Amino acid sequence: MKVDVLLGLQWGDEGKGKVVDVLTPRYDVITRFQGGPNAGHTLEFNNIKHVLHTIPSGIFRDDKINIIGNGVVIDPCIFKKEIDSLLKLGFDLKKTLFISKKAHLILPTHRLLDAASEAAKGDAKIGSTLKGIGPAYRDKIGRDGLRVGDILSGFMEKYKSRVKQHTDLLTKYYRFDYESALTDYETAWFEGIETIKQFQLIDSEIFINNLIESGKTVIAEGAQGTMLDIDFGSYPFVTSSNTITAGACTGLGIAPNKIGKVYGIFKAYCTRVGSGPFPTELIEETGQKLRDIGHEYGSTTGRPRRCGWLDLVALKYAIMIDGVTELIMMKADVLDDFDEIKVCTKYKINGELTDEFPYELDGQVEPIYEILPGWKTPLTGVTDVSGMPDNLIRYIHFIEAKMKVPVRIVSVGPDRSQTIER
Ligand code: GDP
Ligand code: IMO
Ligand code: MG
After folding, report:
1. DSSP state, 384?
2. How far is the CA of 306 from the centre of ligand 1 (A)?
3. Quick check: CB of 204 below 6 Å from ligand 2?
4. Half-sphere exposure of residue 192, counting CA atoms within 13 Å on the CB side?
5. What is the rounded end-to-end Cα distance, in angstroms, of the chain?
6. 123 is a catalytic site residue
7. Which of 4, 21, 41, 166 is catalytic?
8. Sign of the four-CA dihedral 273, 55, 293, 301
9. Sign of CA dihedral 9, 14, 18, 22
10. For a pocket test of ligand 1, which of 299, 303, 333 has the largest count of ligand atoms closer than 8 A to its C-beta?
11. Residue 187 is inside which H or E element, if any?
């Protein structure tokens, strides 16, 4: 069997959580392969709305195996909160959730280093989620990280030596006042470590490959989005992991020839939270209209998301990097009330038109739009293709013709049921 991958193609928050939940009945195993609690994946069903940060979005369906892979970074404190709130909803994950021993831990001092680094950058800050993601991955790559497997023996000694390095940095380099924040967070963090110990800590790469060998179907759930990838995103305004299809290989320990379908998710428009370039951003009232109708506020931080028109130059680049085989268009209903919908099909850079994604998305990039008519029809009640208005079909055909990949699913509302397959 092959592993199918589902990824965001924009700057995150495309609706990955919702779609993974919709697709989960077709799979035996659901895995996260990168990122950490910077992610906020929202699921809605049976009047329940739930946001997941570290835990795969397959956990609301029965009899599924959920795995947090080696490429993920885990904050035990946030993990415990997630587990506790799921318990309150009646979901006990002790038998269904497995954690890689090779996943790295986000230490309390990583959070403080994230805050100190952002403060030191001033106006040039990344706009990180302040969850300690960058410092945790920096320690992983710098070979100074602590892994989940480390909590099983001699943990305190290793923990103290890492924390000493971090507090030295906070004091001597950043001159950052950390004492009370550290003590407050550490207590809850160690409670989280005890929670993690109650779960099945495994060599997930062997476990997953054995599952594939035995015929089980696997879906890998991306976090963030391709434009936030550490190598191919709008660097340095990116996250610290490979959010792309290749990240599923390193983040799970599966070979490239085991990858099957690649589902690429995009919003019918575009959003970005945090700093960094965004060519199609609308800073006037149309942007506010998208934000209001789409409830575009961060699932993790509550920050207002920046909104703009769909950018097909960036989307085409993401499809290329990810090897997308099927597209999924989210939040089409948010455009229900627009007379005209603009789509960026080219960039003008130094007077030249191009549809190739440039090295840098700086102020020199001017988006060139084509205008399509809106459908002016409420989509939230539409349940199959026969109910799709003509101008929505036209919009989809326009995207498919430019991207050369079929749009297989159109999402018309946040609920599990508001999903049209084509
Ligand atoms: P993720 O990080 O990619 O999982 O996406 P988020 O959960 O951060 O953000 C997507 C938001 O859009 C959530 O609030 C979802 O409930 C909501 N959502 C998902 N699909 C749709 C849709 O088709 N229409 C509308 N109106 N909302 C949607
Ligand atoms: P999901 O999985 C949207 C953004 C942050 C910031 C940059 C770096 O819900 O789509 P980090 O905390 O990773 O160091 O922040 O990346 N960012 C996201 N934006 N959705 C996410 O995840 C994000 N995770 C990180 O806003 O600009
Ligand atoms: Mg999100």
Report:
1. S
2. 15
3. no
4. 21
5. 24
6. no
7. 41
8. negative
9. negative
10. 299
11. helix 179-197
41 assigned to active site: yes
Question: Ligand 1: does its nearest atom lie under 6 Å from the Cβ of 50?
Answer: no
Place of tokens 């003008």: 348
CA distance 149 to 202: 8
* Cα torsion 161, 166, 171, 172: sign: positive
Q: pLDDT truncated to tens, each residue of the chain (422 aa)?
A: 899 999 999 999 999 999 999 999 999 999 999 999 999 999 999 999 999 999 999 999 988 999 999 999 999 999 999 999 999 999 999 999 999 999 999 999 999 999 999 999 999 999 999 999 999 999 999 999 999 999 999 999 999 999 999 999 999 999 988 888 899 899 999 999 999 999 999 999 999 999 999 999 999 999 999 999 999 999 999 999 999 999 999 999 999 999 999 999 999 999 999 999 999 999 999 999 999 999 999 888 889 999 999 999 999 999 999 999 999 999 999 999 999 999 999 999 999 999 999 999 888 899 999 999 999 999 999 999 999 999 999 999 999 999 999 999 999 999 999 999 99
Q: Which amino acid is at 178?
A: Y
| CA quadruple 225, 229, 235, 237: dihedral sign | positive
Ligand at shortest distance from the CA of 305: 2
Calpha distance 244→212 (Å, rounded): 21
Of 18, 19, 48, which is best to mutate to test ligand 1, by the most ligand atoms within 8 angstroms of its C-beta? 18
Inter-residue contact 5 to 219 (CB < 8 Å): yes
- Strands (E) across 213-339 are located at 218-221, 259-267, 270-272, 306-308, 310-311, 326-330
